[in-house]
Amino acid sequence: MYKRADKEKYEKLIQESPLFSLDKKAEPVAFRNARLKMIENLYLYLLSINKEKYEPYGCEITETANRCIDTYDSARGEFLNFFNYAWKKEFKYTKNRERLAEKYRGLHVSENTVRAVRKYIKCAEKIEKKDKPEELYSKLAEAMELPVKTIRELAELVDIQVETGNSISDEDEEELWGHIANNVNIERDFEEKEGAENILNKVDKVFQGLRAKQQPIISDVITTKLWMCLEEPEQRYSFISKEVAEEWNKKGTLPTQRDLAKKYGRDEASISRTVKTFLQKLKKEMEQER
After folding, report:
1. What Å distances lie between residue 273 and 33, 139, 200, 214, CA to CA?
2. Is the predicted pLDDT of residue 176 greater than 70, yes or no?
3. Per-residue model confidence as pLDDT tens digits over 250-287
4. Where do the domains of the chain lie?
5. Dist. CA 158–CA 129, nearest whole Å
6. Is 5's pLDDT higher than 70?
7. Comparing C-alpha atoms, which of 228, 158, 163 is closest to residue 192?
8. d(CA 72, CA 54)
9. What is the pLDDT of residues 94-150, one digit of tens each?
10. CA–CA distance, 72 with 152 (Å, rounded to integer)
């Protein structure tokens, strides 16, 4: 069962870890102990969010934690933000592999094939707008020398959607931020800028519809959450916080929710409620195309 107190407890332990202040070579024992404790706290942090969902993936969580510890650069912001982003990508990848294994009963389908199908479908939809899905799948099957059934099932697998629902829980909030960030990056992996822009345009549209007094808070939150996956030209969006951008450029850090609560003279729960209201509107906007 989700408990906000548990989540905040592990967030605090992770943020206050001495790990990255230790010299790996000069203090090997202390570094190793701090590393093990960090991995444990990251695991418990995810379990505090959703034990049933994440407990079966202890190995993947440990591998992701180790990889993040080895590659973390403090200039890129808080470690927990870095880990959360990496874990969302890893979890999404792992779940997709499980779905592939289930659909094909162990038959291996390469990642390149999955990517190719997704990319070709996007391109073909732009060129052959008159085609119905089945006609498009037939053409792709012939071009890629794969069965139509395989193309159809792969098309379903690589179709990225946000879960439906009218409310936003704490876990849903992290999932939706992860969905936006991951998809912006995924679109760039396929050199499909239009898809990334479509997602960010929706964020901007909903942001512009907010009341004036809500915009500064939401602007700071959106920028903090998505800064790592934004590119320089995308600072044209109205939701970008100039203050957060300046802090990053000067100090290389991003504000925490606690920092934002202090900045606006509100408690963290109040900030969280404001963010959830925004995400409910954003989720509705994103689902309209489905």
Report:
1. 37, 48, 22, 11
2. no
3. 776 778 888 898 999 988 888 888 888 888 888 788 76
4. 1-90, 109-157, 165-290
5. 20
6. yes
7. 158
8. 23
9. 887 776 666 555 545 565 666 565 556 555 555 445 456 677 778 777 776 778 887
10. 39
CA torsion 266→267→272→275, rounded to 10°? 10
Give the dihedral sign, CA 37/262/218/75.
negative
Residue 101 C-alpha from the chain's centroid: 23
Using pLDDT thresholds of 50, 70 and 90, give the confidence band for residue 190. very low
What is the identity of the amino acid at 126? K
**Exposure string (b/e) for 173-203, b if CB count within 10 Å is 16 or more?**
bbbbbbbbbbbbebbeeeebeebbeebbebb
The burial class, CB within 10 Å (0-12 / 13-18 / 19+), for 5 is exposed
For 191-201, the pLDDT digits (tens) are: 345 556 777 88
Maximal CA-CA distance, the chain: 66
Residues belonging to the chain: 290
Label residue 105 left, alpha or beta by phi (over 0 means left) and psi (-120 to 50 means alpha). Answer: left
SS3 sequence, the chain?
Answer: CCCHHHHHHHHHHHHCCCHHHCCCCCCHHHHHHHHHHHHHHHHHHHHHHHHHHHHHHHHHHHHHHHHHHHHCCHHHCCHHHHHHHHHHHHHHHHHHHHHHHHHHCCCCCCHHHHHHHHHHHHHHHHHCCCCCHHHHHHHHHHHHCCCHHHHHHHHHHCCCCCCCCCCCCHHHHHHHHHHHHHHHHHHHHCCCHHHHHHHHHHHHHHHHCCCCCCHHHHHHHHHHHHHHHCCHHHHHCCCCCHHHHHHHHHHCCCCCHHHHHHHCCCCHHHHHHHHHHHHHHHHHHHHCCC
pLDDT, greater one: 280 or 64: 64
